[in-house]
Amino acid sequence: MISNFFSSNTKRLFKYSKKYQKKVRNIFAFFLSVEILLLIQPFVLRYLIDDVMMQSNFSLLLPIIMLYLLLVIGHITLNFFANYYIMSYGADVIKNEQLILYEKLQKAPPIFLNFKIGDILARLTSDLEYISNFLVMTKPSIIINIIQFGRVSLILFLFNWPLALLTYATIPIYFWILKHFKTKLMETSKEERKGYSKVMESLREKIENVNTIKLYKKEEFFQQKLKVEIKEWSENKKQYVWSEVSLNRGLIFISAIMTPIILGFGGYMVMKGILTLGTLIAFLGVSQGLYGPLNLISGQLATLQQADTLSQRFFEIFDLPEEESEGIYSLPKNYD
Amino acid sequence: MISNFFSSNTKRLFKYSKKYQKKVRNIFAFFLSVEILLLIQPFVLRYLIDDVMMQSNFSLLLPIIMLYLLLVIGHITLNFFANYYIMSYGADVIKNEQLILYEKLQKAPPIFLNFKIGDILARLTSDLEYISNFLVMTKPSIIINIIQFGRVSLILFLFNWPLALLTYATIPIYFWILKHFKTKLMETSKEERKGYSKVMESLREKIENVNTIKLYKKEEFFQQKLKVEIKEWSENKKQYVWSEVSLNRGLIFISAIMTPIILGFGGYMVMKGILTLGTLIAFLGVSQGLYGPLNLISGQLATLQQADTLSQRFFEIFDLPEEESEGIYSLPKNYD
Fold it and tell me: What would the mean pLDDT of B293-299 be, rounded to a whole number?
């Protein structure tokens, strides 16, 4: 599947990213520790409600709250460093690759340098910002989101599998909204941009020739023409806004209606004595974390499809042949 | 206070926004209804836990869950339309103002048209996107956020005032983090941008003159120079990343540690019989909504400070005198 999904350039970029593997692995360890702390948290909450509060177990309150506090502080601190290191490491990667590409350019024989200066600059700056993301962030972040989804699923099924299945039943609807409205968002956004450039061009034309328009007393005519174009743009924009709001609110809707539904079925089980109240409350909190990873994974997979062009542009400079002192050009070392 | 905070241009823009007051008021009604539904929700949750689940009151479960579901569906639906209307209304405002400014330009005598074409186009397009925000969104959104903050505070104090005071005690810390790290973020971002342009300029210079560099065999020298500059930029970027992560994680930290703290003090009260478990759970959910409005209000006030330049640029075209048929220029109608 993967071999069809990614282009050969993207695959080569992934292979190239191996040189940064070691540090990425360290950052990974940070994120994994965060996941472990988050795995324990809901069980502490359940214990706190069921075995401390409901049993009026005063002596246990302080130790359990302290444990809870430690878990929260620990997970936010680890998360802080994991986020800082992955982003600052991204800066290091840009630095390295910038110097590598510059060296390649300096070593290449003049005959190969038929790029435009602006294009080279773009490849060495803004392109590299994206490339560095692919090199250090994309893969770990997809894996971490899959682990997050696994963590949430594990907790939900351990707490109560029928309720977990009920929660899972919403995932197809969530994905349908995500896919349907993202496609619509992209279509309407394209239309909106088209309308915008049309208005921009029309304004430019009319403002540049305002004196001619006045000379022939055509003010009324051109104003009407502009009005039609602006109106069309405005309509496009409203369709874009509609898709945007539908996407956002639709995703919120799914996770929001799950609260009363879980409370209904879970409440019935609590009253029947099949489920403890602590489990239900903890379940409710954890279930909200099911959709975030899904959203992020789908977003990252979409970004990966842009990797093709970017990696092609990167390797075009990376593969420049070196000028040798004898005046003979060697083929690039990693020529396929 | 307000008169000192805003420039005369901004104040004039607010006065000008009165022409859109009626529709904005309708959108406002939507948002207010959302607030009312959100005000009821935690009381339903409390009733559900305390009087339905804890009392095993089977006959009440279905009606209460239905009510809860209705409240959730109602609030998301209203929120959907409120968001759609305010954004689509923004598109209408751009349309209107674009036509008004174009008419002004067409009517102005040529002698007054000493703007550059590109500048006029920017004022009629990207400037107007911001202006339309100020005209229809800024004021309502500040007011709605204040109402939201009021709603959350009201619920918290009605549920349990000592716990509410405890939650309020974190607000100064929240604001300190917000102010301190936002200032740092702006400073480090400026440095990062400076470092970036330096690298960009250095790359341009070296790539343009790569043949000269080679001719004099200065490759090693220029590569070292570039390395120093890129390293400096990379350091700036890391400082920027540090402030950004500190700001985000700091704000999350405050709201995250409140959960165990509220559970600790609230749990003690539950065990003493002063507080019901349902109140504590509902309190916990609502308390998380205290920080969002604070963050948004402070953000919006910051944006308002950019309104000065934008409104000045807007009124410069709006105030252009009209060319009269007799060849005498009238003063603009709303000339101060």
Answer: 89
Of B57, B69, B125, the CB nearest to A200: B125
Q: Chain A neighbours among B 253-312 (CB < 8 Å)?
A: 253, 256-257, 259-261, 263-264, 267-268, 270-271, 277, 281
In percent, the amount of chain A with pLDDT more than 70 equals: 93
Q: State which residue of chain B sits closest to A87, comparing Cα positions.
A: B241
CA distance A121 to chain B (A): 7
Query: Per residue in A132-183, pLDDT tens?
Result: 888 888 888 899 999 999 999 999 999 999 999 999 999 999 999 999 999 9
The second-level CATH assignment, the architecture, of A1-160+293-336 is Up-down Bundle (1.20)
The residue-averaged pLDDT of B210-230 equals 89
- Residue B249 sits at the chain A interface (C-beta within 8 Å): yes
Predicted local distance difference test score (pLDDT) of residue B326: 46
Three-class HEC string of chain B:
CHHHHCCHHHHHHHHHHHHHHHHHHHHHHHHHHHHHHHHHHHHHHHHHHHHHHCCCCHHHHHHHHHHHHHHHHHHHHHHHHHHHHHHHHHHHHHHHHHHHHHHHHHHCCHHHCCCCHHHHHHHHCHHHHHHHHHHHHHHHHHHHHHHHHHHHHHHHHHHCHHHHHHHHCCHHHHHHHHHHHHHHHHHHHHHHHHHHHHHHHHHHHHHHCHHHHHHCCCHHHHHHHHHHHHHHHHHHHHHHHHHHHHHHHHHHHHHHHHHHHHHHHHHHHHHHCCCCHHHHHHHHHHHHHHHHHHHHHHHHHHHHCCHHHHHHHHHHHHCCCCECCCCCECCCCCCC
Q: pLDDT at position B336, please?
A: 44
* pLDDT attached to residue B120: 86
Question: What CATH architecture does domain B1-159+299-324 belong to?
Answer: Up-down Bundle (1.20)
Chain A contact present for B197, CB below 8 A:
no
| Mutant choice from A84, A93, A181 vs B, greatest count of B C-beta within 10 A | A84
The pLDDT score that the predictor gives to residue A330 is: 47
Low-confidence ranges of chain A (pLDDT < 50): 1-2, 326-336
- Would you list the domain boundaries of chain B? 1-159+299-324, 161-274
pLDDT of the residue at B122:
87
B234 contacts chain A (CB < 8 A): yes
Task: Please tell me which of the candidates A80, A213, A253 has its beta carbon nearest to residue B76.
Answer: A253
Q: Is A185 on the interface with B (CB under 8 A)?
A: no
